[in-house]
Design a protein that fits this description.
The protein is mainly alpha-helical. The chain has one domain (3-155). Helix content is 69%, strand content 0%. It contains 6 helices and no strands. α1 packs parallel to α5 (133-154), α2 (33-44) runs antiparallel to α3 and α3 (65-88) runs antiparallel to α4 (92-119). The longest helix has 28 residues, at 92-119. The chain is globular.
Length: 176
């Protein structure tokens, strides 16, 4: 892996990690699970961008197909699963789709890093052409949001607050 490529990926993980910890997670953790998962699914519905690895002129013609095809079609599959998850998130089937989406999407990204290493893509970042931003900027964000989604899926669904009892507690602070 070239030092510049590795530094770019590492710093992207750091930057997105700070954003997730300070802004994204606090905004998601207090929402009902389906409402918290929705923005993650919306973000991942743009994973069709990975098809750029197959577009001549965007990437070098020397980009190894052993990397490009699985990365592109894995991203497309994940984007379609994200859209399916959005469509059925509130149903019983929705949480099962969410588990499939999150497992497939995470495995796709990890496998893409593995294939990039095995085929030398990280050693010659010029092979990625204009798609260089995908592994250096987007993939760290996507992996972090997959982690957040797993965390949300593993948490028990919080019961909806009872408006009447909340109002009663606010009126009578001695009962809290």
């Amino acid at each position: 892996m070239s030092p510049q490529f590795g530094i770019s990926v590492a710093l992207s993980f750091v930057a997105w990690g700070v954003v997730a910890r300070r802004y994204v997670w606090p905004a998601l953790r207090s929402r009902p699970r389906a409402d918290a998962l929705r923005p993650i699914l919306l973000l991942h519905s743009f994973r069709f961008v990975g098809l750029a690895f197959l577009v001549p002129g965007v990437v070098s013609p020397d980009l190894p197909a052993a990397f490009a095809r699985p990365a592109a079609y894995g991203d497309l599959t994940t984007a379609l699963l994200a859209l399916l998850g959005l469509a059925c998130l509130r149903s019983r089937f929705g949480i099962a789709v969410m588990w499939v989406f999150n497992s497939v999407g995470s495995a796709d990204l990890i496998y893409a890093f593995y294939r990039a290493d095995r085929t030398g893509v990280g050693n010659e970042p010029g092979l990625q052409g204009a798609a260089y931003f995908i592994p250096t900027v987007l993939v760290p964000l996507l992996l972090i949001t997959h982690g957040l989604a797993f965390r949300l899926l593993l948490q028990r669904e919080a019961a909806a607050p009872d408006v009447h009892s909340r109002g009663a507690l606010e009126r009578h602070p001695s009962t809290t």
